[in-house]
Design goal:
With 503 residues, this protein is an alpha/beta fold. It has helices at residues 6-22, 26-38, 42-61, 90-102, 151-154, 168-175, 197-207, 214-220, 225-238, 323-326, 346-357, 397-406, 420-429, 441-445, 485-502, and strands spanning 2-5, 71-79, 82-85, 114-115, 122-123, 131-137, 142-149, 158-162, 187-194, 253-261, 268-275, 281-286, 314-317, 334-343, 370-372, 411-414, 432-435, 448-455, 464-478. It folds into three domains: 1-149 and 281-287 and 298-304, no CATH class; 151-277, 60s Ribosomal Protein L30, Chain: A, CATH 3.30.1330; 314-489, Fe-S hydro-lyase, tartrate dehydratase beta-type, catalytic domain (fumarase), CATH 3.20.130. Helices cover 33% and strands 24% of the residues. The strands form five sheets. A five-stranded mixed barrel has the order 14-15-16-17-19. The protein has a four-stranded mixed beta sheet with strand order 6-2-7-12. A four-stranded mixed beta sheet has the order 8-11-9-10. Strand 14, helix 11 and strand 15 (370-372) form a beta-alpha-beta unit.
């Protein structure tokens, strides 16, 4: 009979969540490093270099890999011979661990969880509650698998019920391009098949906890049908040419994981959930001897990859930029932003919309300005701002015509692609959309020299701020003519990959 103490369990949860906020799993680092060496697309290679360099910086500085420090998912297997020395139930202990981790003064993590999701959507301030899955198993140990799942990748989760005779491969290849790049590839695809609707989703999520081993599988060959499917999907998804950050390239996924479960003869429930470039998961076991001990990656586990701005990057003065200047930019051009940059996300855009509809004055002058779609982590110590990578720009598409047509905004900065209506609006107003690399939040934050609150402070990380930036790296994603790299890049690399395979 093993005795697990309340404090040991809580502290293990807290330590593990801090650990994964700044340490990539070793298998991810090495898989991305190998993909970087193989990559032939300059844009994708540059994005991978930023992610790898950011990963090393975060490990050294013990600060979050991504500004979206995720919602917590816990898979807890409790041995039936375990006894607890605790006055709290299991969910309360997990949530206390989450609370400690996300409010740790040396590495504050962003609180992203809101209560009353269909109503007020009020931030819970400490990222609780977690989503917890508990299973009673044989034995005298407690096994815990934790993930901190970012909203950009979680929002791309897909579910369907296929006919039993339908092709899983065909559905995946049809669905992945529709997911866009908001899940920040390169990452992993987790697939769950069978059971019921909720079981398939759970299988997909749990599969993302597995280690990346596709290269080993390729070397030894498949031993069963699931491994055959993994290899087939790995090759065919990468052949789509989506590439890092959706810019077009040779690697979209670093691995494909599949878990299945017996199902009804008339059904084939299938779920697919991606993991992003800020892959965050860890597992540990408690045996009653104390809190979990976690082994961080060693410095030599990171590939020898550094990043610096391209010599071809165009310096931009945001304080004097004109529409005539941005009209010269083309998709794929690399820029270094300097000067003052406003910030704002979904909630801020909705308030701006409400003010305009009510005929009330706006809290800031957006004319000929640029806005950065970001919800930064709170600063610690001498930081101006915490990690401050981009959020998915597609969510702001519904506000794009308003911002460009009614406020005079000139440009936007975010991650991933824009939809047809937003692109048409950008073209109509001679504006521009720039892309920063998702998964390189700490690196981006190094370019922010000052920050001040402008409006909607009660929105927390979604408030409008003004950043003063120096050499902030971005790429032109949609130019003033409405040409989009997230369309042209993958199309080009689909053809190139096909040609490479013929050789």
């Amino acid at each position: 009979m093993t005795l697990i103490k309340q404090e040991d369990f809580i502290q293990s949860i807290a330590d593990a969540l801090q650990f994964i906020s700044y340490y990539h799993p070793k298998d991810y680092i090495q898989a991305l490093g190998a993909a970087y060496e193989r990559e032939q697309s300059p844009a994708a290679k540059d994005a991978m270099a930023q992610i790898l360099y950011n990963s090393r910086l975060c490990a050294e500085g013990k600060r979050p890999i991504c500004q979206d420090t995720g919602s917590v998912v816990a898979f807890v297997k409790v041995g039936m011979e375990v006894r607890w020395e605790s006055g709290m139930d299991l969910a309360a202990m997990v949530n206390e661990g989450v609370r400690r981790a996300y409010t740790h003064p040396d590495n504050v993590l962003r609180a992203s969880i809101v209560s009353d999701p269909l109503g007020a959507r009020t931030n819970t301030k400490d990222n609780t509650p977690a989503v917890i899955h508990v299973e009673l198993v044989a034995g005298d140990r407690v096994e815990v698998k934790l993930a901190a799942k970012g909203g950009g990748s979680e929002n791309k989760a897909k579910f369907t019920v296929l006919n039993p005779s339908a092709s899983l491969v065909d559905w995946v290849l049809e669905t992945v391009p529709k997911m866009g790049a908001g899940w920040c590839p390169p990452g992993m695809l987790g697939i769950g098949a069978g059971g019921s609707a909720e079981k398939a989703m759970l299988l997909a999520k749990e599969s993302l906890m597995d280690h990346i081993d596709i290269q080993e599988l390729q070397a030894r060959g498949p031993a069963n049908r699931l491994e055959e499917l993994r290899l087939e999907l790995y090759e065919k998804v990468n052949a789509l040419g989506i590439g890092a950050q959706g810019l077009g390239g040779m690697t979209t996924v670093l691995d494909v994981k599949i878990k299945d479960f017996p199902t009804h003869a008339a059904s084939l429930p299938v779920a697919m959930i991606p993991n992003c470039a800020a892959t965050r998961h860890v597992e540990f076991e408690l045996d009653g001897s104390g809190p979990a001990r976690l082994e961080p990656p060693r410095p030599e586990d990171w590939p020898d990859v550094t990043w610096k701005p391209s010599d071809q990057a165009i310096p931009v003065d945001l304080d004097t930029i004109t529409r005539e200047e941005i009209a010269k930019w083309r998709p794929g051009d690399r820029l270094l932003l300097n000067g003052k940059l406003l910030t704002g996300r979904d909630a801020a855009h909705k308030r701006i919309q409400d003010l305009l509809r009510a005929g009330q004055p706006l809290p800031a002058d957006f004319r000929n300005r640029f806005i950065y779609y970001v919800g930064p982590v709170d600063p610690v110590r001498d930081e101006v701002v915490g990690p401050a990578g981009p959020t998915t720009a597609t969510r702001m598409d519904q506000f794009t015509e308003m911002m460009l047509g009614e406020t005079g905004l000139m440009g936007m900065v975010g991650k991933a692609e824009r939809g047809p209506a937003a692109i048409e609006s950008i073209k109509k107003h001679g504006a521009v959309y720039l892309m920063a690399v998702g998964g390189a939040a700490y690196l981006v934050a190094q370019a922010i020299r000052a920050s001040r609150m402008v409006a909607f402070e009660d929105l927390g990380m979604e408030a409008i701020r003004e950043f003063e930036v120096e050499n902030m790296p971005v790429t032109v994603a949609v130019d003033s003519r409405g040409e989009a790299i997230h369309q042209s890049g993958p199309a080009e690399w689909r053809v190139r990959i096909a040609d490479i395979k013929k050789i």
